Amino acid sequence: xxxxxxxxxxxxxxxxxxxxxxxxxxxxxxxxxxxxxxxxxxxxxxxxxxxxxxxxxxxxxxxxxxxxxxxxxxxxxxxxxxxxxxxxxxxxxxxxxxxxxxxxxxxxxxxxxxxxxxxxxxxxxxxxxxxxxxxxxxxxxxxxxxxxxxxxxxxxxxxxxxxxxxxxxxxxxx
Length: 174
What we know:
By secondary structure, this protein is mainly alpha-helical.
């Protein structure tokens, strides 16, 4: 397996993992939608976030499919459907931008709903007004926290990349 095939396999695996997580968000939010009286918006947060994450994820999967088709093409001919042209179209870019802005705002709202319930959430007594089903709450809390961790790691990786690339071309830094 060459380097290009390995990279393509890793990209496809990460796209598949993202898709599975998104489906879990929608399913967990839907199954436990009536089981969180402490804040009825927590399951809605998962459902809406999952549904709106499908737009960029499907775009990524379509784009990844095109990369795979190009790497497997032997005759060099163009396919009938050009996902790359779709991904570069102004309409698709506009939709991606609007969805991205909405997701950012929805994520911040979800943080408020999930983290504000943390000190008082009741996982055992389903008759308590502070109850939230443990699967629902723990999934929402873990997912939200993992997004922050991933964001922090991405920022660190970006800073390290910039720092390591400064002066790489033989320029004198002093």
